[in-house]
Design goal:
It is built from 44 helices and ten strands. Helix 33 crosses helix 35 (745-764). The strands form two sheets. Strands 1, 2, 3, 4 and 5 form a five-stranded mixed beta sheet that branches. The chain is elongated. Helices cover 61% and strands 5% of the residues.
Length: 995
């Protein structure tokens, strides 16, 4: 008797045995049909051992109630007396609600779990075929299939089979099911069956003998006519049989469905014919197939239909698979395949994705398959469709490290076991780890985690996913180092030929040189070599992701040679998470940044500082440069110091631009290309302005001490004045001076000219640092006019002889160095020229249009493609800038927002003033930003300025990567550039030319 207010002893025992709802369990055990086992300790212990005791008891009660009255006690007696049945039946009921439903609908199927002979432990295809033999229609096939699935699940949850054996049994059951479905289809259409030979080729996980509980079964169909039959009619008949087979397996009936049969891996995918002859398959693969299709064929296996034709197909395509690594586009295809397929995963699900998420099953499978493609051409031991078998073969052959392979094997098995248990619960196709606490608890217990199932599951899952993430790159690169480091005797190593093949497949144009670099960096027993062996596997992966892996590795060797003896260099790369990846991105993205870095390798420290890539303001730069000039003994030494600062800051700007454009594993690429353009323009302009200030100070000190006889200012023009400079931009300037009180004007002018000449000389003295060229051709009278004028002289000239083009050029005038008050007075002086009262007259507008048309016809270089020239081409920089400047000169007098030297600001102001529509403003801005980015990219990649896309394919690919286009998408980049600039030109025709 239970005392009121106290729990019964049964309730307490149920709680202790893992039931989460002991009250409901008590009610189930209290049912009349359960009277004989209600207090049986053997049953309670068995229920407590399963994944979900509540689910198992509920399923058992449903199964007992579904029995005929005379059979109920027989089931319970067998359950209590036969441990194999007890473990199997309760194990399934506690792990799978769907199989519990099946047993409730087909109550005699529990008897399939009674026998426990040695032959039952590992059934093969023939055993499953016997289990499906009575199925003569789709409904019966589903029932028989579930009965067979029941025995597989029972062995799985009881630990009789491991995850690989379970996956193989599921694949064998799928094979038997496809054969049974084809038999049903042939019986329904004997005339079709009589005229064709049809073979079913399993692909994917079924072909690889590693199927999930619920998965699409990927297939390819191949057919031939029987002797004497017409080929086209035979293919049509085979197509009808194949379509019927797919419906038999895929359609939903009163007994549900089996699984979808997916034939989309066939030639041309869903757009291609469902069935082809063998010769048609081979013709497609030899001429049109892509690398991923050969990767898919790794797992091709004949499973149903005509066995001779199936084997003929596999034998015919197998050599093509192992020749895939010799194809022209193999390297870019491999680079694309190595990138995780996460684009289509919702953000909210990516952390729960077992298959496609970072550290997921796809990472293991792709890594193994790609290594098979690379090395399988010369090693037949790698020709396996099974991921785990192939991983073992790769380790045995020295293609991956044994320890790495063992860790990857363990992680893959755990993740597959999780996937199996998740799918088994409701027999639904999913790769998402559940969020519900009860689901996580059942999942954890099913994997043997009993103390704290939820916490234990999360810990183990994250640990194994972390192993996969960490080893994913090491599988590719660690053996390359082992091949050259010559450390541990007796360890099976990658042969020189295999190392060469792997580097070639990863995009290295000169594998021999790459191996020499690796040997130089990692050989020996020093601490330095040990750290390099830790760093290089990851660095090699980042280099391989770039357009020029060879340059990245060579640059890294040069930096390491220069800094290898400094105590902080390797420590920085090892310990500062972002530094190594940032360095890899910078070294492999082009020539400019590595050239700047190698002139002063200590600048690599900037890459490890979170604030190191942030551009420094002009005041800070000018203060540093003027201080350096002040400490120097000569003008040459002072400007050399200033140019050294400029080089370092150009590297900082270029590195930030590259890392922002490429993104890193921790932070995505900058989404707004306009922000990247503005950042570079501001940084380079500030840097050049500070450098000019330093050169001016050095020139004055050398000849006059602290004070020049005349007040002197440098006015920025063009892109310099507009704060839109690129890495290779000259400094367009005007020089203005005003004699100090009591100084003769001729003496003042002579001093000003001396200063200008000295500045230009000092900034171009040949050194290791990039020169800063001063261009004063926008001055009055151009190259024929004096380099320097007084403020009064400028006033007279512009008032009496100024031309429209000179007024247009003055739109960009901005004080940059020297006497800033004099510079502001110059700007005030030209304000009425820049923004004439009441705007430009019609004659002036016609003159500007005439000048623009003449420039288009005369200045475009001979042979240049006008659709791809960023400056003078259709819809390029000149088109957008002249259009914006025309608005400024016509409306700047009335619209204060237009009074700016910056193109994008002026365009935004024109839009705000209603002068340009939103669509037109967006089109012009997009084209200007893109053209500017292309110029920046060309300079970063080639190390010299250019207004057109590079002709070299590797350089063109690197520009594409900088602009966000992946490998193999150069054509898309050029098409997009032409499309965007074509739209911009249409707007220019309307707004500038009035078309």
């Amino acid at each position: 008797m239970t005392v009121p207010g106290r729990r019964s002893s049964t309730f307490t025992r149920l709680l202790r045995h893992g039931f989460t709802d002991p009250s409901a369990a008590e009610r189930f055990l209290g049912l009349p049909d359960m009277a004989s086992v209600r207090t049986d300790p053997v049953l309670l212990d068995a229920l407590g051992a399963v994944a979900d005791p509540d689910l198992a008891l509920r399923g058992l009660v449903r199964l007992v109630e579904a029995q005929k009255p005379q059979d109920r006690q027989s089931l319970l007696d067998t359950l209590v007396s036969a441990k194999p049945l007890r473990d199997r039946l309760l194990g399934v009921l506690g792990a799978s609600e769907a199989l519990g439903d099946h047993l409730a609908r087909h109550p005699s199927d529990w008897k399939a779990l009674v026998t426990y002979e040695a032959a039952d432990l590992h059934p093969g295809v023939e055993d499953f075929e016997r289990g499906l033999a009575d199925a003569t229609d789709p409904v019966m096939l589903r029932v028989s299939y579930r009965r067979c699935l029941l025995s597989i699940a029972a062995r799985d949850v009881c630990g009789t089979t491991d995850v690989a054996e379970t996956a193989a049994e599921l694949a064998d059951l799928a094979t038997a099911t496809l054969r049974a479905a084809l038999a049903i289809a042939r019986t329904a259409a004997p005339a079709d069956a009589a005229v064709c030979r049809l073979a079913v080729i399993a692909m994917g996980k079924c072909g690889g003998h590693e199927l999930n509980y619920v998965s699409d079964v990927d297939v390819i169909f191949v057919a031939e006519p029987v002797e004497g039959a017409d080929e086209s009619k035979a293919v049509q008949a085979a197509t009808r049989l194949a379509s019927h087979l797919m419906r038999i397996c895929s359609e939903t009936t009163v007994e549900g469905t089996i699984w979808p049969v997916d034939a989309n891996l066939r030639p041309e995918g869903r757009n291609g014919p469902l069935v082809r002859t063998l010769s048609s398959h081979l013709a497609y693969y030899q001429r049109w197939a892509k690398t991923w299709e050969f990767q898919a064929l790794l797992k091709a296996r004949a499973v149903a239909g005509d066995p001779a034709l199936g084997e003929e197909y596999v034998e015919a395509v197998s050599p093509l698979v192992w020749q895939a690594a010799e194809r022209e586009n193999f390297v870019p295809d491999v680079q694309k395949m190595r990138r995780r397929v996460v684009d289509n995963i919702p953000v909210a699900e990516i952390e729960r994705e077992l298959k496609l998420g970072p550290g997921g099953l796809r990472d293991v499978e792709f890594a193994v398959q790609l290594l098979q493609l690379v090395h399988g051409r010369s090693d037949a031991t790698l020709h396996s469709g099974s991921t785990l078998e192939a991983l073992r073969a790769l380790a045995a052959g020295g293609y991956v490290g044994r320890a790495d392979a063992a860790q990857m094997d363990s992680a893959y098995r755990f993740l597959r076991a999780m996937e199996h248990r998740i799918q088994l619960y409701r027999l639904r196709r999913t790769h998402l780890v559940p969020e519900d606490e009860a689901d996580l608890r059942r999942l954890g217990r099913s994997l043997g985690l009993r103390t704290d199932p939820v916490a234990g599951l999360n810990k183990e899952w994250k640990r194994h996913a972390s192993v996969v993430r960490r080893l994913h790159e090491k599988l590719f690169y660690r053996p390359l180092l082992d091949a050259v480091a010559q450390l541990t005797p007796g360890e099976t190593r990658l042969s020189p030929k295999a190392a060469w093949q792997r580097l070639e497949a990863l995009g290295y144009a000169d594998p021999g040189a790459a191996l020499r670099h690796l040997e130089a960096l990692s050989s020996g027993v020093t601490r330095k070599a040990a750290i390099q062996r830790t760093l290089l596997p990851v660095l090699l992966g980042w280099f391989a992701d770039s357009a020029d892996p060879d340059a990245g590795l060579l640059g890294f060797r040069k930096v390491s040679d220069a800094l290898g003896k400094t105590p902080w260099y390797l420590r920085l790369l090892r310990d500062e998470g972002a530094a190594a990846e940032n360095l890899a991105r910078v070294l492999s993205a082009g020539r400019l940044a590595p050239d700047l870095l190698l002139r002063a390798p200590e600048a690599v420290a900037l890459l490890g500082d979170p604030e190191g890539l942030r551009p420094r303001g002009r005041d800070h730069l000018e203060q540093e440069i003027l201080a350096a000039v002040g400490r120097a003994d000569t003008a040459e030494a002072g400007v050399a110091a200033a140019r050294g600062v400029r080089r370092r800051e150009l590297f900082r700007t270029a590195a930030a631009d590259l890392i922002g454009s490429y993104g890193t594993e921790e932070s995505p690429a900058e989404a707004d290309p306009g922000a990247l353009v503005d950042r570079v323009g501001n940084a380079v302009t500030d840097l050049n302005a500070a450098t000019l200030a330093g050169a001016l100070r050095a020139a004055v000190r050398e000849h006059w001490g602290d004070t020049l006889p005349t007040r002197f200012a440098v006015i920025g023009m063009g892109r310099f004045g507009g704060r839109e400079q690129s890495y290779g931009s000259d400094a367009d300037v005007l020089f203005v001076h005003e004699p100090r009180e009591g100084v003769d004007e001729h003496e003042a002018t002579r001093a000003a000219n001396t200063v200008v000449t000295e500045m230009r000389r000092l900034l171009q003295v040949p050194t290791a640092d990039p020169p800063l060229l001063i261009d004063a051709d926008l001055r009055p009278e151009g190259k024929s006019g004096p380099l320097v004028r007084t403020l009064a002289s400028y006033e007279v000239y512009y008032r009496r002889w100024g031309l429209v083009w000179e007024s247009q050029a003055l739109l960009r005038a901005e004080p940059m160095a020297g006497d800033m008050e004099l510079g502001r007075r110059f700007v005030d002086l030209v304000a009425s020229l820049r923004y004439p009262a009441e705007g430009l007259g019609d004659d002036a507008v016609r003159e500007i249009r005439r000048l623009k048309a003449r420039m288009e016809s005369e200045r475009l270089p001979r042979g240049a493609d006008p659709t791809l020239h960023t400056k003078l081409g259709r819809g390029g920089l000149s088109d957008v800038e002249w259009t914006v400047q025309l608005f400024q000169m016509r409306h700047g007098w009335a619209e204060p927002g237009l009074r700016t030297t910056r193109t994008r600001e002026a365009l935004a102001a024109a839009h705000a003033a209603g002068l340009v529509t939103t669509e037109d403003a967006q089109i012009l801005d997009e084209a200007w930003v893109l053209a500017t980015r292309v110029r920046n990219g060309v300079m970063l990649v080639r190390g010299r300025a250019g207004d057109t896309f590079p002709s070299d394919s590797r350089e063109l690919g690197a520009v594409g990567r900088y602009l966000g286009y992946g490998p193999g998408h150069v054509g898309d980049m050029l098409d997009d550039y032409r499309r965007i600039t074509r739209r911009a030109r249409a707007v220019v025709e309307e707004l500038f030319y009035g078309a």
